[in-house]
Amino acid sequence: MQIVCLDLEGVLIPEIWIAFAKETGINALTRTTRDEPDYDKLMQYRLNILDGENLKIDHIKGVIHKLEPLSGAREFLDQLQARGPVVILSDTFEEFAGPLMAKLGFPTLFCHNLVVDSVGKITSYRLRTENHKQKTVEAFRRLNFNVVAAGDSYNDLNMIRAAHNGILFNAPSQVIAENPDLPTAFSYDELETRIEEIGPG
After folding, report:
1. Whether 9 is catalytic
2. Staple partner for 73: which of 36, 69, 134, 190, CB 3.0–4.6 Å?
């Protein structure tokens, strides 16, 4: 049986941190996993900015509530789920994801958690497990699923390469250039066609 594992931000929804950067005018927060391969380094960078600007979790949630899934994402996801299981593997946080998961029809999501103090300051974060995207794909493989994985950023590469079939979706040119052996797709129709061509395994 085939199972499809998808990244979330940049694949199905807008990049939350970029949207927050635009709302606040803090250009430094536009840095994402498309730019920085080291996730811990990136998160510490973000948390330092939030602390310096005295920005709390409710400020970020206010922006998230205004966001919508990327155009065509809900329909694409519905079509995939009609054919078989789909799991979203993301380095976002449960505290951020809720409103957008509702708009996507509540797909299965594996992600992380934030540590928030009594006044709403984000003080740290807890990973579900180190390198959870790759480990989840490997676990599905051990369960005899034929795994297809798609993502757009540096933090998706281990997941994509651990799958039976991996696809870069709307990835930046630098990621594509550094991984010339990986197939690419640039629209939901193209991604769906690639997944269909792979077959159920």
Report:
1. yes
2. 69
